[in-house]
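testing teh design pipeline on a random one, pls ignore if ur not involved
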């Protein structure tokens, strides 16, 4: 038997300990409160960081409102230069930042490295779009000049989820910054470290107060949303919290965008190659990028009855070969869930699926041999009825469920049979089937024969309860501005 080296890797944190970044200054929380950050693979402490209170958020908003005036006046080309410089700094520091994310979140190291690159390339792409954020000249009678001027909101509140810590922090602030807003960023409490490290790099590039980082929990998040001076909030997280955000934003009529959960379908047509379908199903689960904790994961496989046995057998083979272990080991495919409470939720979903009569093909428990850590096995269920909770609820973990269909009508009914609508993947070699499905299936993003990497700038967001608004494209940048109409008589 081989023994596993359970020594945690050394990580090199540059952000001052127990600190928030407010107005260009690193300072403790006003309450003195701290939060312990844990390594989920070993259940050992990694760092103590400040736990921001609502008053800390108020301070950050005040700092942002001071900085926003000058930042909005700064030429966009200069703001773009700052974003490009930040991209360079991220790339130079990629190995250190990726290891921090891996130790903090449990994501496999290759996935964390890909997240750093994705963050850096988003900064460059958004920097390049800055000049396209323009108003328009409107048709008007002689003697009248009418145009719109796109102005930043002023202060943007950005609240992130825990599954891509650095990538979400960076991607989330790029569009507000290029459009001239100052930002208050509240990272997820389970994985705050790389947001603080990003802030450490950003203070070398951005004027004080333009980016403030307040790691904290729900109370801090609530204050970001309800502060009357925060005019635009962008939120990534669960549907449940998204509803609360929307309610809290109503008080000040704050503009909100929501990136929420998914229970996404991978749809296999009878003409598909079973090996291709099995590869797509496994890739679509993001086992090796975020341990299955991805809003984009196609966690429901809707397979045509004729192909079901062949595809399920191949998927089970592929899932069986995934190695679960310490995520900084480059030979490991899948790490732990990001925190203990989430592991319990995932196990709860699995237990309920069994109780409700789903057939467990693979996994279903904690892997043996690791001793500790919030690990769960890659898990596969078949004979899943549409009414079962496991067919309806987002697990946000490495659990794939299989449902069968015979007619296209039945397939579309299953695909659209949850309140979610984030992504879908259609696996077929017939263009006709592909286009018919694209017409009938409700989702913000539909792959055909995916999942493949999205071309940079592809708008991303959900329909139904999966969200409000789109990120990544030019529309995202425009959403951080308000058009002001100017009508001049001359
Ligand atoms: P969560 O809703 O528990 O928390 C998200 C963030 O909201 C955290 O920073 C949290 O501190 C904060 N928060 C909690 N209560 C708040 C409140 N009342 N007001 C304001 N902020 C509050 O979500 P999570 O568990 O961190 O993330 C997992 C969920 O996120 C899944 O549902 C997943 O699908 C979704 N997600 C969606 C996308 C997307 O792009 N659509 C991306 C990643 C994750």
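output:
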């Amino acid at each position: 038997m081989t023994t596993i080296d359970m020594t945690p890797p050394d990580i090199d944190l540059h952000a001052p300990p127990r600190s928030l970044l407010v107005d260009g200054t690193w300072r403790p929380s006003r309450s003195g409160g701290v939060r312990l950050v844990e390594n989920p693979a070993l259940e050992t402490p990694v760092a103590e960081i400040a736990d921001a209170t609502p008053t800390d958020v108020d301070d950050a908003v005040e700092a942002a409102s001071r900085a926003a005036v000058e930042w909005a006046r700064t030429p966009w080309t200069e703001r773009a230069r700052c974003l490009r410089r930040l991209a360079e700094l991220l790339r130079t520091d990629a190995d250190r930042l990726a290891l921090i994310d891996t130790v903090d979140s449990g994501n496999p190291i290759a996935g964390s490295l890909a997240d750093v690159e994705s963050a850096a390339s988003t900064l460059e792409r958004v920097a390049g779009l800055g000049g396209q954020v323009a108003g328009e000249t409107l048709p008007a009678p002689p003697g009248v000049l009418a145009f719109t001027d796109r102005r930043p909101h002023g202060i943007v509140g950005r609240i992130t989820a825990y599954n891509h810590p650095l990538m979400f922090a960076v991607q989330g602030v790029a569009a507000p910054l290029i459009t001239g807003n100052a930002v208050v960023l509240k990272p997820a409490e389970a994985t705050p470290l790389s947001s603080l490290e990003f802030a450490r790099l950003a203070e070398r590039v951005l004027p004080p107060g333009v980016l403030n980082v307040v790691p904290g929990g729900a109370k801090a998040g609530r204050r970001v949303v309800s502060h009357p001076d925060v005019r635009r909030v962008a939120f990534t997280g669960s549907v449940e919290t998204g509803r609360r955000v929307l309610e809290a934003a109503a008080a000040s009529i704050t503009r909100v965008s929501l990136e929420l959960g998914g229970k996404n379908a991978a749809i296999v047509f009878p003409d598909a190659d079973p090996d291709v379908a099995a590869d797509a199903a496994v890739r679509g689960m993001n086992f090796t990028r975020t341990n299955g904790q991805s809003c984009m994961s196609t966690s429901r496989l809707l397979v045509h009855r004729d192909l079901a046995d062949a595809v399920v057998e191949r998927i089970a083979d592929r899932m069986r070969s995934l190695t679960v272990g310490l995520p900084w080991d480059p030979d490991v495919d899948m790490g732990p869930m990001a925190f203990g409470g989430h592991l319990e939720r995932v196990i709860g979903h699995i237990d309920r699926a069994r109780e409700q009569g789903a057939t467990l093909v693979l996994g279903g428990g904690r892997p043996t041999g690791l001793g500790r850590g919030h690990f769960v096995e890659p898990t596969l269920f078949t004979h899943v009825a549409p009414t079962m909770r496991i067919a309806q609820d987002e697990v946000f973990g490495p659990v794939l469920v299989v449902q069968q269909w015979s007619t296209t009508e039945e397939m579309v009914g299953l695909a659209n049979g949850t309140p979610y609508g984030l992504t879908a993947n259609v696996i077929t070699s017939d263009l006709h089937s592909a286009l018919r499905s694209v017409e009938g299936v409700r989702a913000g993003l539909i792959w055909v024969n995916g999942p493949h990497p999205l071309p940079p700038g592809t708008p991303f967001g959900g329909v139904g309860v999966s969200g409000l608004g789109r990120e990544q494209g030019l529309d995202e940048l425009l959403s951080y501005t308000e058009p002001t109409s100017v009508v001049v008589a001359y």
